[in-house]
Amino acid sequence: MIKIAPSILSADFSRLGEHILETKKAGAEYLHIDVMDGIFVPNISFGAPVYKCIRKMTDQFFDVHLMIVDPIRYVDDFVKAGADNITIHHEACADQIETLKYIKSKGVKASVSVKPKTDPHVLKEYLPYIDMILIMSVEPGFGGQSFIPSAIESTRVAYELVRDSGRNIDIEVDGGISAKNVDLVTSVGANVIVAGSAVFGAPDMAEAIAQIRAAGDAAYKTKI
Ligand code: DX5
Ligand code: ZN
Question: Which of 87, 129, 157, 171 is most deeply buried (CB count within 10 A of its CB)?
């Protein structure tokens, strides 16, 4: 079974609380929280104080995606604000393994992400330290972009690295995913699907999530 992680970047921030409660009712397992610093990516979103407030509203799994340089500086803040998983970018710092170990030492899951043009084989060195790999299927920075097909091969490589290692590591894909194309990544091993505009832009959130899940699960069963 795949898990669905609606990205709140596509929510209406004036109704953030309501929107978040709606994602759980609609069947989403995770809440994907995109943190952007205007340096690693050309956009600024929100930081720990915002999701500290929403943490009080829900027990949902908070999947925090840090698109910030030198993320180790903020790990304590994000842990205190209630993160369940913290994802850092391979491209955002030089002390990735130290950062991942630090996140784990705080009792929080640790994950690493690669941008679409990064060779996914770099992920191999992280396997002993991570709970999840995040394959970006758009250039990070904005919701509502089109899926970049090279992410399919990156997902396949990540899945094979994990399978061959014998470790229990999830594979998440993020960017431009809807019920129409989710099969492209779940068929090669992705089991956590981020969806922003496809969930928050849909007339019926529960229906949108159910469709992504049905198409994603059907293809996941065909993976090697
Ligand atoms: C992009 C973010 C994504 C984005 C996904 O930098 O990491 O999580 O919000 O939104 P959609 O599904 O609309 O591409
Ligand atoms: Zn994201």
Answer: 87
